[in-house]
Design goal:
By secondary structure, this protein is α+β, with helices and mostly antiparallel strands. The chain contains nine helices and 24 strands.
């Protein structure tokens, strides 16, 4: 007797039930292993500061200087007198990322300015002596910004088979002095993502970008490019000729706007020659025009073969068990504020935590506080410089009289030029800001082209490039602001120099008055002697 037939709807229901049953354990297993907002005084005690060295700097709770809400902005701040910092915090329970994502996220800001050092964090094993932990303590992962003279990138190091493997892709951090959130995601499908303020900054293959495994295919060593292969697409046009007057103009000419210094004396200083400046009519080295190469063979592609040394390791993403989070950094100028640290296996948890504690609102609030502070400082400096100009002019009139004003007008003009250059620096900063906003709009449009493939997120190349271009543009704004601050600093030095000069002139005037009084008294004494 044949078994009873079941309807297609019944079979489909059974299949859906089985699928949901298989997903429930995964959905229920999502967990947060570490979460810290540093909102209470007890938060400081969670990070045990190492006693391995006597010269370690200290850590304290502080919102820094740029914040809108002190209670919510409070974080773990590096503080002198030392420049090396070491502290660890224990997880709520040991975390293994086998068969689950690893999502490590934290927020940091360094508002002091250019530094040499890192603002990264580490993941360490469960068997760590927190009192004696140091830079030599073994770690499983390191992640975060690293900035110095020749370094400006987000570092990401993974421990694999006893060796540290560093991310080969350069992803620049945010250097605008505001709070930014950095997220590192490792997935069981051997892919990774790095987010900055929950915008994708980099992604790809763990095996390829961290060199965890050799490439699966390599160029065939037995094949060579043919000797007669011509890979030059364009060649100089043999019919191109250099114009007869091409070399008539020199590269440099005397500056027509240069003015002979007012204190230049030919008898003592020699003949004055104006400085040289670039000749805008100079045409440079002549290069013949090019034409398509008739013998061009195209781009030669090396044939690939399977790599005999390649062994696929499906567990390459698995880190050793994690039991602690470590702060191990060196900073020449301490003051970085670490905040809102989370370790979880669920990206949605990290995203919700970001929106709750940071998000665009906090960043915009900090940006407004910074801009108000900087605008006020710039305006104060401007008023001080204008006061310096007025004081200098009045002093010259009082000491030297109207005949000497022309002699010092050149110096007065130099201070006015400095004020004008400040104006230009401010305008340049605004122009760079407008360019940055345009770049941001382009990046946001391109990010909409993200797509999912093969279980791992793959980002369109132009979206990744636009994200990097956006951060570069924002950093350009920071550089423009830094240039403006440099001018303000020079103003302060100018003020100090003027005060020293005024003091010297005042002492000289007093000495001259004393000499005149002494001469007058001596003359009076001589008159009495004659009588």
């Amino acid at each position: 007797m044949s078994p009873p037939k079941r309807s297609a709807r019944f079979v489909l229901s059974i299949a859906l039930f089985a699928l949901l049953a298989s997903l429930l354990p995964a959905l229920a297993s999502s967990k947060v292993y570490f979460r810290e907002t540093f909102s209470t005084p007890e938060s400081l005690g969670r990070f045990v500061q190492s006693k391995a060295r006597d010269d370690y700097g200290t850590l304290r709770l502080s919102p820094g200087e740029i914040f809108a809400d002190a209670a919510n902005a409070q974080g773990l701040q590096t503080h002198g007198p030392g420049t090396q910092f070491m502290a660890t915090a224990k997880l709520d329970e040991v975390f293994s990322n086998r068969d689950r994502p690893l999502v490590f996220q934290y927020q940091v800001k360094h508002e002091i300015g250019p530094i040499c050092g890192g603002t990264y964090l580490k993941l360490l094993g469960p068997d760590v002596d927190q009192e004696t932990a140091s830079s030599d303590t073994d770690f499983h992962l390191m992640f975060g910004p690293d900035v110095c003279t020749n370094v400006n990138r987000i570092q990401a190091l993974i421990k694999y088979r006893g060796k540290n493997h560093s991310l080969r892709v350069v992803i620049p951090p945010m250097n605008d002095g505001l709070s930014h959130t950095y997220t590192f995601i490792i997935r069981p499908n051997l892919t990774y993502q790095i987010l900055v303020d929950h915008q994708i900054a980099g992604s790809g293959s763990l095996a390829a970008h961290f060199d965890l495994m050799p490439p699966s295919r390599i160029p065939d060593p037995s094949v060579r490019r043919p000797d007669d292969w011509d890979s030059v697409a364009f060649i100089p046009d043999p019919n191109s000729r250099k114009p007869a007057d091409w070399d008539d103009e020199p590269e440099f000419i005397p500056d027509p706007d240069a003015v002979k210094p007012f204190d230049w004396v030919d008898e003592h200083d020699g003949d004055w020659d104006p400085p040289m400046t670039l000749n805008h009519n100079y045409r440079g080295e002549w290069v013949p025009e090019t034409m398509p190469n008739p013998n061009y063979s195209g781009v030669w592609v090396h044939p690939m073969i399977p790599n005999p040394e390649y062994v696929h390791d499906p567990d390459a993403y698995v880190l050793p068990d994690i039991g602690h989070i470590g702060l191990d950094v060196m900073q020449t100028r301490p003051g970085a504020v670490f905040d809102n640290i989370m370790l979880t296996d669920d990206l949605d948890e990290a995203r919700a935590f970001f929106e709750e504690t940071a998000g665009e609102e906090r960043l915009q609030a900090e940006r407004e506080v910074r801009d108000v502070r900087d605008s006020a400082a710039a305006e104060r400096a401007r008023l001080e410089l204008e006061e310096i100009l007025r004081t200098e002019k009045a002093f010259d009139q009082a000491v030297y009289g109207s005949q000497e004003i022309d002699v010092h007008s050149t110096q007065l003009d130099s201070w006015r030029d400095l004020l004008s250059m400040n104006d230009r620096a401010s305008r340049s900063a605004r122009m760079v800001a407008e360019i940055a906003l345009q770049s941001i709009n382009v990046a946001q449009t391109l990010r909409q082209r993200e797509f999912t493939q093969g279980g791992g997120v793959v980002i369109a190349d132009e979206a990744s490039e636009a994200a990097i271009a956006t951060r570069n543009a924002i950093q350009a704004v920071g550089r423009a602001r830094h240039a403006y601050a440099s001018w303000l600093s020079r103003n302060a030095k100018a003020k100090a120099q003027m005060e020293e000069r005024a003091k010297a002139m005042e002492e000289a005037a007093k000495a001259e008055e004393a000499a005149k009084a002494a001469a007058k008294a001596e003359k009076a004494d001589a008159g009495r002697d004659e009588l």
